[in-house]
Structures are given as structure tokens and as C-alpha cells.
Design goal:
about 30% helix; five-stranded mixed sheet; about 400 residues; five-stranded antiparallel sheet; Beta-lactamase
């Protein structure tokens, strides 16, 4: 009898899932491209499959691969500095750690360490990447979500400006480079000259240009001591100073879809694997070792998903999500993924119990969502739903997607 009920329930779900195609085949998706894969990880059943082996622009769903890579490569705390002491001089190298005086983390472990030394030499030769990822939009240079990458980030590589009784700039080093202006841009493209609307009371965050001199000057301003730029580090093993708990960075990256953290985590990962900070090193290591069984190898060009050059399939997303599901305690896994709330259509929707733990990804005309769905019966299913090239509003797309998710939640 129990067996019969199980078979009947399964057939009922598949039938109702097919009937639910009214939403996925609605005119909303006309002339656009969608891919969906939903699996039951315990039964190893495929519950829904549509275009799951086709390639899509994933946007910030790319951060799922960055999370997976970081969890496999990085220790429990983020490496903050590599250093070596020779005679009376402390030689330091950045590891790509994004948390040093970051507006959110405000980590100062490295600063406290550096204050103990009188003579400091900074070497930056280990950073071998470009400051921007391939395919990033050039006009985003002054937007908060597109800071430059580098080997020794500081203040999140952004200038934060707000106005109370006086104009407050963090870091204060750039205060004399701020001009009141009504121009739509917030910074000159090729110089650290910033603009702030005199009538504004908003807090704005603008990336600054990073180079050896800027990083050196910022450190000197904080430490109130001279720093030299060294072309080399002493031979031999290097010591490592650690900063914050790695999970705190992963959680911030996933919950806020923080592009800067994602990019820097891939650099930190490459620095753990080798002596070089370069996205490609960490990417190739993961694809060639931990993810060598992927049936559709992605075109993976950055850690954040800012680039439209990225191409991933729903099947690849679900594969990585399944690996995370198998290898992480559920309470830790679901903490790393943000809760996704359904679009509020009715007032009573505000009381809805969370059931989606997933990462979204948005670019113009693209919206993707991949993660874990908890059904009313207590089952967990893993899904990736990718939408590309739609010309309707993304809110319409989200409402249709959530009808599909709610159907699975209520019937499986």
C-alpha cells in the first residue's frame, strides 16, 4: 500500500509539473531563452528538465562556482599578508585579501601587525592579473559594484563619501581630490579626481584607481611611517598572517552579490595554490580537478559574473550545487545562500515562510536563480532556472518563476 501511494504521488507530481508548463510556455517567454533543471538529490530523480545542457549567460550565478572554489582551496581564515623579515626590514606581499579596512569588515589585523615594524618594504610582483575582468563594461569604472582588482586591496578599493555638517571621505587621503559638481559621473576615468553633488545627502561609494603609489600612500597615511616599494622578496619560505573567518566573506559575497569580494576570493585562492595572484590559476585548478566530471565545461572568465562572456549550463550549476549539498552540513550551507523571497503579489504574501535558498544573477535582459528549494513535505530539491534575452521587465519574469517554484513546493 505504501509503495502504491509512493508511486501514485510521484506520478501525480510529474503530471502536475507537466500541467504547470502553462507558465513556462506563456507569452512572457516568447522570443527569449530559458533553461531549467530540478532534481531530487536523495532519490537522484530529475523532476523537470528543459534546455538544461544549453549555455546561458549566468550573471551572478557565477558566484556559486566562486564559492565552491573558495571552499575547496582556502583555509578557515583568509590569508592577509605573506611576509618575511630580513635584518631590520619587514618585507610584505598582498594575498588579495579583500577585507583590509573594508567598509563592511573593517579588518585591521594587518595594520596592527605592520605598526609593530619600523622598516616596511612592499612587493607587488605576485599580482599578474588585469584590474578588470574580460568583457566588463568600460562605463562602469565609477560604479560601486565594479572596483578594480589588485594584490593588496584596502578600503575595498572604494572611496566612500557622505555629508553631515562636513564632507566626510573614507579614506581621508582622497578628500582633497573631491570636487562638488552636478556632473553625472562620480570620478574621472583615468585619474583619482572625484565628484560629489553639493545638494546631495546620500552616501556614495566610488572605486578609486589602484597602483603601487596609491597603495603605498594609503598605507603610509594609516601607519604614519614610510614604506618602500621593493622589486623582490627575500628567498625562502614566507610567513602568512591571517585575517577574518572565510565563511564571513563567503556569506557577504553571496548575500550581497558582492562582485569585489568574488573577484578577490579567486585571487586569494590562486595565491594559496601558487605564488601568483591570477584568476585563471584558481579557475583551471578547480575545473581540472574537482569539476573534471562536468559534462558541459563552462566558459568562465571572472569570479563575479559581471562579464557577459561567461557561459554556464543549468546542468553545470546543479552539479556544483549538488556537490555542495553532499559535502557541507545543511545549517552551514543554507546560511551561505541568501533566502529568496517571492515577489509580493498580495498583502498576505509577507507572511510566507522562507523556502528558497538560492543565488540570483541579474544583467540587462537576463535573470537567473539557482539553489535549494524546501518543499512543504520537507524534501529538498536542487534547481537552476536561467533566463536570457527577455525584453519584458524582470519583475514579470520573477513572478512567473515563483509560480513554478511554489508549485513544486506545494506538490512534491
Amino acid at each position: 500500500m505504501k509503495f502504491f501511494l509512493l508511486i501514485f504521488g510521484t506520478l501525480l507530481f510529474f503530471t502536475s509539473c507537466k500541467n504547470s508548463k502553462y507558465s513556462l510556455d506563456s507569452n512572457l517567454y516568447k522570443n527569449s531563452f530559458k533553461g531549467v533543471l530540478v532534481i531530487d538529490p536523495i532519490k537522484k530523480d530529475t523532476l523537470y528538465n528543459h534546455n538544461s545542457t544549453k549555455y546561458f549567460t549566468p550573471a551572478s550565478n557565477t558566484k556559486i562556482f566562486t564559492l565552491y572554489s573558495s571552499l575547496h582551496i582556502l583555509p578557515n581564515k583568509i590569508p592577509a599578508l605573506k611576509y618575511s623579515i630580513q635584518k631590520d626590514t619587514l618585507y610584505i606581499q598582498g594575498t588579495g585579501d579583500p577585507t583590509l579596512l573594508h567598509p563592511y569588515f573593517k579588518d585591521s589585523i594587518a595594520i596592527s601587525f605592520l605598526k609593530k615594524h619600523s622598516n616596511i618594504a612592499l612587493n607587488t610582483s605576485n599580482f599578474k592579473d588585469n584590474k578588470y575582468g574580460p568583457g566588463w563594461a568600460w562605463e562602469d569604472y565609477d560604479t560601486y559594484y565594479s572596483p578594480e582588482k589588485n594584490g593588496l586591496p584596502i578600503y575595498g578599493n572604494v572611496l566612500t563619501i557622505h555629508k553631515g555638517n562636513n564632507l566626510i571621505a573614507t579614506p581621508n587621503y582622497f578628500k582633497d581630490s573631491i570636487t562638488f559638481s552636478n556632473l553625472p559621473k562620480r570620478r574621472e576615468e583615468h585619474t583619482n579626481m572625484f565628484y560629489y553633488n553639493s545638494a546631495s545627502t546620500d552616501t556614495i561609494t566610488t572605486p578609486f584607481i589602484t597602483n603601487n603609489n596609491v597603495i603605498k600612500d594609503l598605507l603610509e597615511d594609516i601607519l604614519q611611517k614610510n614604506i618602500t616599494i621593493s622589486s623582490r622578496l627575500p628567498e625562502g619560505d614566507k610567513n602568512i598572517l591571517y585575517s577574518v573567518a572565510s565563511d564571513s566573506v563567503y556569506k557577504r559575497m553571496m548575500h550581497k552579490s558582492d562582485n569585489f569580494l568574488a573577484e578577490q576570493l579567486m585571487l586569494v585562492s590562486s595565491g594559496v595554490l601558487t605564488d601568483t595572484l591570477k584568476f585563471k590559476i584558481a579557475k583551471e585548478y578547480i575545473l581540472e580537478t574537482k569539476l573534471s566530471n562536468l559534462k558541459q565545461k563552462p566558459r568562465w572568465v571572472d569570479g563575479s559574473g559581471l562579464s557577459r562572456y561567461n557561459l554556464f549550463t543549468p546542468e553545470s550549476m546543479v552539479y556544483v550545487l549538488h556537490e555542495l549539498y553532499k559535502n557541507l552540513p545543511k545549517e552551514r550551507l543554507y546560511t551561505l545562500f541568501p533566502v529568496v523571497n517571492a515577489p509580493k503579489i498580495k498583502k498576505e504574501d509577507t507572511m510566507q515562510k522562507p523556502y528558497l535558498y538560492a543565488k540570483s544573477g541579474s544583467l540587462g535582459n537576463n535573470y537567473c536563480l539557482s539553489g535549494y528549494l524546501i518543499t512543504n513535505s520537507g524534501k529538498t530539491v536542487i534547481f537552476s532556472f536561467m533566463n536570457n534575452h527577455f525584453v519584458r521587465s524582470s519583475s514579470d519574469i520573477k513572478k512567473e518563476m515563483h509560480q513554478f517554484f511554489e508549485h513544486i513546493r506545494d506538490t512534491y
